[in-house]
Design a protein that fits this description.
The chain contains one helix and nine strands; from the N terminus they run αβββββββββ. It is mainly beta. Strands 1-2-3-4-5-6-8-9 form an eight-stranded antiparallel β-barrel. The longest helix has 13 residues. It is elongated and about 45 Å long. It starts with a helix and ends with a strand.
Length: about 180
């Protein structure tokens, strides 16, 4: 059932004729988004089998600039909360690239690369990578709602000497964003 639902969501995201708007060529523009999402996670590390799954909730802000109608570069930050046997909170700072599949298409692919700052168990800074796809649904002249699905990977160092270290989580996520 979950695979069918995921398949339907992917088909909807790649449909480019759902929005009946007529697009005119837009000039280079700035954009910003407020994001919220959740996801499921599997941890890497030497944990008990029951401790290897969990969840993630995130809130974020991203801003960018469209250099062409298809290509945008930007930056963002936010707060990610990972829940499993313990709780890990991190604050990512990242660069974001967004590419629309066709000119003036609502469907896009994105990637974010950056560093993760942690505030749990004195964990060191780490590397963040996200890849995914989204779909812009216009709800006003300059406002859209963007449902997204994707993959998040966080690689980071260990905790202080003498502890067992902390695993690197990866998460499949569903996210929604209001873009302005």
């Amino acid at each position: 059932m979950k695979l069918k639902l995921l398949g339907i969501l992917i088909l909807i995201l790649f449909q480019t004729n759902l929005n009946a708007q007529d697009y005119e060529e837009t000039p280079k523009t700035f954009w910003g988004s407020v994001e919220a999402g959740f996801g499921g996670m599997i941890k890497f590390g030497k944990e008990r089998e029951s401790d290897k799954i969990g969840g993630m909730i995130n809130l974020g802000l991203t801003a960018g600039y469209y250099f062409t109608p298809q290509l945008s570069l930007g930056a963002g930050t936010g707060l990610y909360n990972f829940f499993y046997d313990d709780r890990l909170q991190m604050i990512p700072v990242f660069a974001n690239i967004r590419y629309h599949v066709r000119k003036f298409s609502e469907c896009y692919v994105f990637s974010s690369v950056g560093v993760s700052l942690f505030n749990f168990r004195n964990t060191t800074h780490g590397f963040l990578l996200e890849v995914g796809t989204g779909y812009k649904i216009s709800i006003g002249k300059r406002i859209s709602f963007n449902p997204m699905i994707g993959y998040n990977l966080n690689v980071h160092g260990s905790t202080p000497a003498g502890s067992s270290g902390y695993p690197s989580p990866f998460t499949w996520f569903i996210r929604g964003a209001f873009e302005f």
